[in-house]
Amino acid sequence: MSTLENRPNTALLVIDVQNGAVEGAHERDAVVANVGTLVDKAREEDVPVVWVQHSSERLAKGTDNWRIVPELAPNDAEPLVDKSYADSFEETTLESVLSGLGVGRLVVVGAQTDECIRSTLHGAIVRGYDATLVSDAHTTEDQREWGAPPPDKVIAHTNLYWTYHKAPGRTAGTVETKDVDFGSAS
């Protein structure tokens, strides 16, 4: 369904599930476990798993904060995309990686809901991808100190609006981990 020609494949896009990004995040362990379940399922079904790893002052390359959480491990055959902006497409190799894999549909999981997840979902849709958010496999930290709603409300709101998001010739939507089907859009 995506508007990208010759892109029939689906990929699992794992965004920023790094020590420093999920430390103290809402329901961290459950979300990481759900991401792990989906990584295993994708691998079993020969669906590409594409990892995105953010670098910033807080997540400096090579530090423990920057590393993917120990419960998850990209394998050597899986692409790893370095990024420094919220949108995983912005000034990264993500588009060329996905193009090389023939991917037009993304199943999105990871952190931070209110920044990198939202930005990447919107970035995907405007670039012609179908983008499904796994509603119980993304998380964020508590930012109430800076005026944000509680993390559970941020996650719920993101799930709500992405469930009904639309764009011409593209699909969006949400699905729970247990219902992910890598063979079709949600």
Main traits of this protein?
single chain, 186 residues, alpha/beta, 6-stranded parallel β-sheet, 5 helices, 6 strands, 30% helix, globular
Account of the protein in words:
With 186 residues, this protein is of the alpha/beta class. Helix content is 30%, strand content 20%. The chain has 5 helices and 6 strands; from the N terminus they run E-H-H-E-E-H-E-H-E-H-E.
Topology:
Layout (H helix, E strand, L loop, with lengths): L8 E7 L3 H4 L5 H17 L4 E6 L25 E4 L10 H7 L2 E9 L1 H14 L3 E10 L11 H13 L10 E2 L11
Parallel strand pairs: 1-2, 1-4, 2-3, 4-5, 5-6
Summarize the structure.
This protein is α/β, with parallel strands linked by helices and 186 residues long. The chain has helices spanning 19-22, 28-44, 94-100, 113-126, 151-163; strands at 9-15, 49-54, 80-83, 103-111, 130-139, 174-175.
Unreliably modeled segments: none
Mean pLDDT: 96
Number of helices: 5
How do the strands of the widest beta sheet line up side by side?
Answer: 3-2-1-4-5-6
Provide the gyration radius in Å.
15 Å
Q: Give the number of DSSP strands.
A: 6
Helix amount, in percent? 25-40%
Q: Ends: how far apart?
A: 11 Å
- Outline type: globular
Strand fraction: 15-25%
Largest sheet: 6 strands, parallel
* SSE pattern, N- to C-terminal: EHHEEHEHEHE
Structural class: alpha/beta
